[in-house]
Amino acid sequence: MDPFLINSTSVLNTTNKTAKGRDICKDRIAGYIFCLTVESITVIVGFPANLRTLQVLRGRVAESSTSDVFIGNVVVLDTLFCLIIPVTVINVFHIQNPYISKAVDLVFMLNENGALLFLCCVCLDLYIAMLHPIRFLRYKVLAYRAGCSAAIWVITVVISIYLTFLAGKQGFYLTTSIFCSAFALMLFCNLSILWALQQAGPGAQEMHPIKKKAFNTVLTILVILILNYSLLVVLFLIDDVIPGYILQYYITPIGHSFVTIRVCIQPLLFLYSAGQMHCLPNSN
For residue range 229-243, what is the model confidence (pLDDT) as tens digits? Predict the structure, then answer.
């Protein structure tokens, strides 16, 4: 099992360990409780936000952007993630069924890997559109993105099954490679887009309003990307430095909590940029 996989199996094992004959873990459950608390908040906020995002995406099919295909897939994964969290809480504290735990872990892996890969596609799509517009026009056909989405789903399912049921120590290296590579790609694409957007036109004193709006949107995405994923990337890199029990019971659950909160932050940002959060000013 991947040591960085914060799942219901690890929480279940932690809550079931006795003080004698096994590791004393009763006093080390604070990290997992924090993670479950964040997940509960994510359900309350993220589930309706993702449903609303799906509704918005469905309603603007005629005028949708090319990235909406990938965003829609992320929203589907996030909605499924929100639905499985209550099952996790009930199973950990009441049912305590290991088979349910494995099924929940599989859904968690689907979200963790699939959402990351689809977010990479979003960033790459925006990067090509901004910095290579001619090439972007060649591959603007929806069929390319549908084929890419299908391929990512297949890859995600295979990787998730492997990490959930088959992977040992090798799972850690696979997770690290995927996570760090995706993070580096998204960081490069977003920084490149920001650099391109901030270049004013010839003789212009200020950035064009449309470019300014795009600049602010990408900058917000970059900030969320760094806040949600940078801590976990650092954890991957310092795995051999921190004592194992501190890493497992305290630091890693908190790191994964930052990743989990993306499930509700991302749809809220999408709704705000789409002008669908009428409770906030300047959301049009």
Answer: 777 677 767 767 777
In the DSSP assignment, the letter for residue 223 is H
Tokens 């004393």 label which residue? 24
User: pLDDT (tens digit, 9 = 90+) per residue, 113-139?
Assistant: 898 899 888 888 888 888 888 888 887
Q: Is 88 exposed, middle or buried (0-12, 13-18, 19+ CB in 10 A)?
A: buried
- Is the separation of the CB atoms in 223 and 231 below 8 Å? no
Closest CA to 156 of 130, 182, 138, 132: 182
| 195's tokens | 């650099």
CB atoms within 10 A of CB 232: 24
What does pTM read for this prediction?
0.81
DSSP 25-53: -GGG-HHHHHHHHHHHHHHHHHHHHHHHH
